[in-house]
Amino acid sequence: MAAKLIDGKAVSQKIKMQVKTRVEKLAQQGIVPGLAVVLVGEDSASLTYVKNKKKTCEALGMRSDLHQFPDTLTEQELLAKIDELNSDPGIHGILVQLPLPQQIDEFKVITAISPEKDVDGFHPISVGNMMIGKDAFLPCTPHGIMELLAHYGIDPAGKHAVVIGRSNIVGKPIGQLLLQKDATVTYCHSKTKDLANFTAQADILIAAIGRAKFIDRTFIKPGAVIIDVGMNRDENGKLCGDVDFEDVQETASFVTPVPGGVGPMTIAMLMENTLESAEKGLAKTKQA
Ligand code: NAP
Fold first, then answer.
1. Within a domain: residue 159?
2. Do 141 and 167 touch, CB atoms closer than 8 A?
3. Ligand 1 centre and the CA of 211: distance in Å?
4. What Pfam families does the record point to (predicted)?
5. What does the pLDDT read at residue 53?
6. Are residues 91 and 164 in the same domain?
7. Residue 10 domain-assigned?
8. Active site residue: 53, 81, 172, 181, which one?
Protein backbone atom coordinates (compact mmCIF):
# COMPACT_ATOMS: atom_id res chain seq x y z
CA MET A 1 0.00 0.00 0.00
CA ALA A 2 1.29 3.45 -0.87
CA ALA A 3 2.21 5.83 1.94
CA LYS A 4 -0.24 8.61 2.80
CA LEU A 5 0.79 11.99 1.50
CA ILE A 6 1.38 14.72 4.07
CA ASP A 7 0.12 17.66 2.07
CA GLY A 8 2.01 20.73 3.29
CA LYS A 9 0.53 22.88 0.56
CA ALA A 10 -3.03 22.23 1.73
CA VAL A 11 -2.25 22.54 5.46
CA SER A 12 -0.27 25.75 4.92
CA GLN A 13 -3.16 27.19 2.92
CA LYS A 14 -5.50 26.53 5.83
CA ILE A 15 -3.09 28.19 8.29
CA LYS A 16 -2.67 31.19 6.01
CA MET A 17 -6.44 31.63 5.80
CA GLN A 18 -6.63 31.61 9.61
CA VAL A 19 -3.83 34.21 9.70
CA LYS A 20 -5.71 36.36 7.17
CA THR A 21 -8.84 36.35 9.34
CA ARG A 22 -6.82 37.41 12.39
CA VAL A 23 -5.05 40.11 10.34
CA GLU A 24 -8.47 41.49 9.34
CA LYS A 25 -9.50 41.60 13.01
CA LEU A 26 -6.33 43.49 13.93
CA ALA A 27 -6.89 45.91 11.06
CA GLN A 28 -10.18 46.90 12.70
CA GLN A 29 -8.09 48.11 15.63
CA GLY A 30 -5.79 50.04 13.33
CA ILE A 31 -2.87 47.59 13.38
CA VAL A 32 -1.27 46.13 10.27
CA PRO A 33 1.34 43.44 11.05
CA GLY A 34 4.62 44.46 9.44
CA LEU A 35 7.52 42.23 8.42
CA ALA A 36 10.89 43.71 7.47
CA VAL A 37 13.03 41.44 5.33
CA VAL A 38 16.69 42.30 4.96
CA LEU A 39 18.60 40.87 2.03
CA VAL A 40 22.31 41.43 1.52
CA GLY A 41 23.75 40.46 -1.86
CA GLU A 42 22.34 38.92 -5.00
CA ASP A 43 22.06 35.21 -4.17
CA SER A 44 19.32 34.00 -6.52
CA ALA A 45 17.85 31.40 -4.14
CA SER A 46 17.68 34.00 -1.35
CA LEU A 47 16.02 36.48 -3.70
CA THR A 48 13.36 33.89 -4.59
CA TYR A 49 12.67 33.11 -0.89
CA VAL A 50 12.46 36.79 -0.05
CA LYS A 51 10.08 37.55 -2.92
CA ASN A 52 7.82 34.65 -1.86
CA LYS A 53 7.71 35.95 1.70
CA LYS A 54 6.79 39.44 0.49
CA LYS A 55 4.09 38.12 -1.84
CA THR A 56 2.56 35.97 0.91
CA CYS A 57 2.57 38.87 3.40
CA GLU A 58 0.76 41.07 0.96
CA ALA A 59 -1.79 38.37 0.08
CA LEU A 60 -2.67 38.09 3.77
CA GLY A 61 -3.07 41.84 4.24
CA MET A 62 0.24 42.32 6.05
CA ARG A 63 2.88 44.95 5.40
CA SER A 64 6.17 43.73 4.04
CA ASP A 65 9.24 45.93 3.55
CA LEU A 66 12.20 44.60 1.65
CA HIS A 67 15.55 46.19 2.50
CA GLN A 68 18.01 45.11 -0.13
CA PHE A 69 21.72 45.91 0.03
CA PRO A 70 24.78 45.15 -2.11
CA ASP A 71 27.14 42.44 -0.81
CA THR A 72 29.68 45.16 0.05
CA LEU A 73 27.50 46.27 3.00
CA THR A 74 29.51 46.52 6.22
CA GLU A 75 28.57 44.88 9.50
CA GLN A 76 28.11 48.32 11.13
CA GLU A 77 25.74 49.40 8.39
CA LEU A 78 23.65 46.27 8.79
CA LEU A 79 23.59 46.59 12.60
CA ALA A 80 22.46 50.21 12.23
CA LYS A 81 19.61 49.09 9.96
CA ILE A 82 18.54 46.50 12.51
CA ASP A 83 18.60 49.12 15.25
CA GLU A 84 16.33 51.29 13.17
CA LEU A 85 13.92 48.41 12.52
CA ASN A 86 13.96 47.40 16.21
CA SER A 87 12.57 50.80 17.12
CA ASP A 88 10.09 51.11 14.24
CA PRO A 89 6.61 50.62 15.77
CA GLY A 90 5.13 49.63 12.38
CA ILE A 91 7.48 46.62 12.15
CA HIS A 92 6.59 43.55 14.20
CA GLY A 93 8.97 41.03 12.67
CA ILE A 94 12.54 41.29 11.37
CA LEU A 95 14.05 38.65 9.19
CA VAL A 96 17.61 38.76 7.92
CA GLN A 97 17.95 36.37 5.01
CA LEU A 98 20.91 34.02 5.49
CA PRO A 99 23.61 33.40 4.43
CA LEU A 100 25.33 36.77 4.85
CA PRO A 101 28.54 37.85 3.10
CA GLN A 102 31.84 36.90 4.75
CA GLN A 103 32.59 40.32 6.27
CA ILE A 104 29.42 40.15 8.39
CA ASP A 105 29.25 38.10 11.58
CA GLU A 106 25.95 36.19 11.41
CA PHE A 107 25.76 35.69 15.18
CA LYS A 108 26.21 39.41 15.87
CA VAL A 109 23.39 40.18 13.48
CA ILE A 110 21.01 37.56 14.88
CA THR A 111 21.62 38.75 18.44
CA ALA A 112 21.07 42.39 17.41
CA ILE A 113 17.45 41.67 16.48
CA SER A 114 15.08 42.42 19.34
CA PRO A 115 13.77 39.06 20.67
CA GLU A 116 10.29 40.62 20.53
CA LYS A 117 10.63 40.89 16.74
CA ASP A 118 12.61 37.68 16.21
CA VAL A 119 10.01 35.96 14.03
CA ASP A 120 12.63 33.55 12.67
CA GLY A 121 13.23 32.26 16.20
CA PHE A 122 17.03 32.30 15.80
CA HIS A 123 17.97 34.66 18.66
CA PRO A 124 19.65 32.82 21.58
CA ILE A 125 16.87 34.11 23.88
CA SER A 126 14.22 32.57 21.61
CA VAL A 127 16.24 29.35 21.36
CA GLY A 128 16.70 29.21 25.16
CA ASN A 129 13.01 29.81 25.83
CA MET A 130 12.08 27.15 23.29
CA MET A 131 14.47 24.68 24.96
CA ILE A 132 12.86 25.14 28.37
CA GLY A 133 9.36 25.17 26.94
CA LYS A 134 8.65 28.86 27.62
CA ASP A 135 6.83 31.27 25.35
CA ALA A 136 9.04 32.01 22.32
CA PHE A 137 8.86 32.44 18.59
CA LEU A 138 9.55 28.95 17.31
CA PRO A 139 11.83 28.59 14.28
CA CYS A 140 9.54 28.36 11.27
CA THR A 141 10.61 25.08 9.63
CA PRO A 142 10.55 22.93 12.81
CA HIS A 143 7.32 24.62 13.91
CA GLY A 144 5.81 23.84 10.51
CA ILE A 145 6.79 20.17 10.86
CA MET A 146 5.10 19.96 14.28
CA GLU A 147 1.95 21.49 12.79
CA LEU A 148 1.98 18.91 10.00
CA LEU A 149 2.30 16.03 12.47
CA ALA A 150 -0.56 17.44 14.56
CA HIS A 151 -2.75 17.96 11.52
CA TYR A 152 -2.37 14.32 10.48
CA GLY A 153 -2.96 13.04 14.02
CA ILE A 154 0.62 11.77 14.39
CA ASP A 155 1.38 11.94 18.10
CA PRO A 156 5.14 11.85 18.81
CA ALA A 157 4.57 10.63 22.42
CA GLY A 158 6.42 7.40 23.09
CA LYS A 159 7.70 7.23 19.50
CA HIS A 160 11.32 7.02 18.50
CA ALA A 161 12.12 10.09 16.40
CA VAL A 162 15.39 10.05 14.52
CA VAL A 163 16.62 13.41 13.20
CA ILE A 164 19.31 13.42 10.53
CA GLY A 165 21.00 16.82 10.64
CA ARG A 166 22.00 19.07 13.53
CA SER A 167 21.81 22.59 12.11
CA ASN A 168 20.66 25.40 14.41
CA ILE A 169 17.72 26.21 12.17
CA VAL A 170 16.29 22.74 11.52
CA GLY A 171 17.93 19.66 13.04
CA LYS A 172 18.55 20.79 16.63
CA PRO A 173 15.23 22.58 17.17
CA ILE A 174 13.02 19.90 15.60
CA GLY A 175 14.60 17.34 17.95
CA GLN A 176 13.78 19.59 20.92
CA LEU A 177 10.19 20.14 19.84
CA LEU A 178 9.69 16.39 19.38
CA LEU A 179 11.22 15.80 22.81
CA GLN A 180 8.75 18.27 24.33
CA LYS A 181 5.98 16.17 22.80
CA ASP A 182 7.41 13.11 24.58
CA ALA A 183 9.22 11.44 21.69
CA THR A 184 12.50 9.66 22.35
CA VAL A 185 14.93 11.50 20.12
CA THR A 186 18.13 10.41 18.41
CA TYR A 187 20.25 12.88 16.45
CA CYS A 188 22.40 11.70 13.54
CA HIS A 189 24.90 13.71 11.50
CA SER A 190 27.78 13.30 9.09
CA LYS A 191 30.00 11.65 11.73
CA THR A 192 27.35 9.08 12.71
CA LYS A 193 28.63 5.59 12.12
CA ASP A 194 26.19 3.18 10.46
CA LEU A 195 23.41 5.69 9.89
CA ALA A 196 20.99 3.04 8.62
CA ASN A 197 21.18 1.24 11.95
CA PHE A 198 19.61 4.31 13.62
CA THR A 199 17.18 5.30 10.89
CA ALA A 200 15.83 1.73 10.76
CA GLN A 201 14.62 2.22 14.36
CA ALA A 202 12.74 5.43 13.61
CA ASP A 203 8.97 5.65 13.99
CA ILE A 204 9.35 9.24 12.82
CA LEU A 205 12.29 10.07 10.58
CA ILE A 206 13.25 13.68 9.91
CA ALA A 207 15.68 14.13 7.04
CA ALA A 208 17.38 17.55 7.14
CA ILE A 209 20.61 16.78 5.32
CA GLY A 210 20.76 18.61 2.00
CA ARG A 211 21.59 15.56 -0.16
CA ALA A 212 19.31 14.68 -3.05
CA LYS A 213 17.30 11.44 -2.59
CA PHE A 214 19.79 10.17 0.00
CA ILE A 215 17.20 8.25 2.04
CA ASP A 216 15.65 5.29 0.27
CA ARG A 217 13.64 2.32 1.56
CA THR A 218 16.76 0.56 2.85
CA PHE A 219 17.04 3.22 5.59
CA ILE A 220 13.53 3.02 6.93
CA LYS A 221 11.36 0.88 9.16
CA PRO A 222 8.06 -0.36 7.73
CA GLY A 223 5.28 2.00 8.78
CA ALA A 224 7.60 4.93 9.55
CA VAL A 225 6.49 8.55 9.16
CA ILE A 226 8.98 10.32 6.91
CA ILE A 227 9.43 14.09 6.99
CA ASP A 228 11.64 15.39 4.22
CA VAL A 229 13.11 18.83 4.89
CA GLY A 230 15.70 18.76 2.11
CA MET A 231 15.57 21.12 -0.85
CA ASN A 232 17.96 19.96 -3.50
CA ARG A 233 18.26 19.71 -7.26
CA ASP A 234 18.40 16.26 -8.85
CA GLU A 235 20.58 15.30 -11.83
CA ASN A 236 18.05 16.98 -14.17
CA GLY A 237 17.96 20.19 -12.15
CA LYS A 238 14.51 19.35 -10.74
CA LEU A 239 13.69 20.28 -7.14
CA CYS A 240 13.80 17.22 -4.86
CA GLY A 241 14.17 16.31 -1.21
CA ASP A 242 16.60 14.23 0.84
CA VAL A 243 14.24 11.28 0.50
CA ASP A 244 13.66 9.15 -2.58
CA PHE A 245 9.91 9.77 -2.52
CA GLU A 246 8.96 7.03 -4.99
CA ASP A 247 11.22 4.42 -3.43
CA VAL A 248 9.82 4.76 0.13
CA GLN A 249 6.15 4.64 -0.95
CA GLU A 250 5.58 0.97 -0.14
CA THR A 251 7.47 1.07 3.17
CA ALA A 252 6.50 4.36 4.85
CA SER A 253 3.08 5.05 6.38
CA PHE A 254 3.23 8.82 5.75
CA VAL A 255 5.61 10.92 3.70
CA THR A 256 6.01 14.60 2.81
CA PRO A 257 6.62 15.45 -0.86
CA VAL A 258 9.18 17.96 -2.13
CA PRO A 259 7.97 20.40 -3.29
CA GLY A 260 4.67 20.77 -1.41
CA GLY A 261 5.62 19.36 2.00
CA VAL A 262 7.67 21.20 4.61
CA GLY A 263 8.55 24.19 2.37
CA PRO A 264 5.12 25.87 2.26
CA MET A 265 4.72 25.32 6.01
CA THR A 266 7.88 27.32 6.75
CA ILE A 267 6.45 30.43 5.13
CA ALA A 268 3.03 29.96 6.76
CA MET A 269 4.66 29.81 10.21
CA LEU A 270 6.62 32.98 9.47
CA MET A 271 3.33 34.72 8.73
CA GLU A 272 1.82 33.37 11.94
CA ASN A 273 4.82 34.51 14.01
CA THR A 274 4.64 38.03 12.53
CA LEU A 275 0.92 38.22 13.25
CA GLU A 276 1.46 36.99 16.82
CA SER A 277 4.12 39.62 17.36
CA ALA A 278 1.66 42.32 16.27
CA GLU A 279 -1.07 40.85 18.51
CA LYS A 280 1.31 40.77 21.49
CA GLY A 281 2.26 44.41 20.81
CA LEU A 282 -1.39 45.41 20.87
CA ALA A 283 -2.04 43.49 24.10
CA LYS A 284 0.90 45.31 25.73
CA THR A 285 -0.38 48.72 24.59
CA LYS A 286 -3.79 47.91 26.09
CA GLN A 287 -2.22 46.88 29.40
CA ALA A 288 -0.13 50.05 29.62
P1 NAP B 1 23.05 22.18 7.02
O2 NAP B 1 23.25 23.30 7.97
O3 NAP B 1 23.94 22.03 5.86
O4 NAP B 1 23.04 20.82 7.86
C5 NAP B 1 23.02 19.58 7.23
C6 NAP B 1 23.17 18.52 8.28
O7 NAP B 1 23.17 17.25 7.62
C8 NAP B 1 24.46 18.62 9.09
O9 NAP B 1 24.17 18.47 10.46
C10 NAP B 1 25.31 17.48 8.56
O11 NAP B 1 26.15 16.88 9.55
C12 NAP B 1 24.25 16.47 8.14
N13 NAP B 1 24.76 15.58 7.10
C14 NAP B 1 25.38 15.89 5.95
N15 NAP B 1 25.71 14.78 5.27
C16 NAP B 1 25.31 13.74 6.02
C17 NAP B 1 25.39 12.33 5.87
N18 NAP B 1 25.96 11.78 4.81
N19 NAP B 1 24.88 11.55 6.83
C20 NAP B 1 24.30 12.10 7.93
N21 NAP B 1 24.20 13.43 8.14
C22 NAP B 1 24.70 14.24 7.19
O23 NAP B 1 21.57 22.23 6.39
P24 NAP B 1 20.17 22.79 6.95
O25 NAP B 1 20.17 24.26 6.89
O26 NAP B 1 19.80 22.09 8.21
O27 NAP B 1 19.23 22.28 5.77
C28 NAP B 1 19.10 20.92 5.46
C29 NAP B 1 18.28 20.78 4.19
O30 NAP B 1 17.00 21.33 4.43
C31 NAP B 1 18.82 21.56 3.00
O32 NAP B 1 18.51 20.85 1.82
C33 NAP B 1 18.05 22.85 3.01
O34 NAP B 1 17.94 23.45 1.75
C35 NAP B 1 16.71 22.37 3.50
N36 NAP B 1 15.90 23.36 4.19
C37 NAP B 1 14.60 23.42 3.84
C38 NAP B 1 13.77 24.30 4.48
C39 NAP B 1 12.34 24.34 4.09
O40 NAP B 1 11.65 25.28 4.42
N41 NAP B 1 11.85 23.31 3.42
C42 NAP B 1 14.27 25.15 5.48
C43 NAP B 1 15.61 25.04 5.85
C44 NAP B 1 16.42 24.13 5.19
P45 NAP B 1 27.37 17.69 10.27
O46 NAP B 1 26.72 18.58 11.27
O47 NAP B 1 28.18 16.62 10.89
O48 NAP B 1 28.05 18.44 9.16
1. yes
2. no
3. 8
4. THF_DHG_CYH (PF00763), THF_DHG_CYH_C (PF02882)
5. 94
6. no
7. no
8. 53
Instruction: Please indicate, yes or no, whether residues 38 and 149 belong to a single structural domain of this protein.
Output: no
Count: domains in the chain: 2
Count H helices, E strands: the chain? 10, 11
Bridge partners of 39?
68
Are 60 and 151 members of one domain? Answer: no
pTM, 2 dp = 0.97
255 lies in which domain range? 140-263
Residue 166 among known ligand-binding residues: yes
Residue 268 lies in a domain: no
Q: Which residue among 16, 81, 120, 172 is the active-site one?
A: 120
Q: Is the CB of 52 under 6 A from ligand 1?
A: no
Confirm whether 85 is domain-assigned.
yes
Give Cα separations from 264 to 143, 208, 212, 269 (angstroms): 12, 16, 19, 9
Cα distances (angstroms) measured from residue 217 to each of 174, 193, 204: 23, 19, 14
Please write the tens of the pLDDT for every residue from 93-137: 999 999 999 999 999 999 999 999 999 999 999 999 999 999 999
DSSP string, 69-94: E-TT--HHHHHHHHHHHHT-TT--EE
Specify whether 76 is catalytic.
no
* Atom nearest to 189 CA in ligand 1: 21
Instruction: Specify whether 168 is located in the same domain as 106.
Output: no
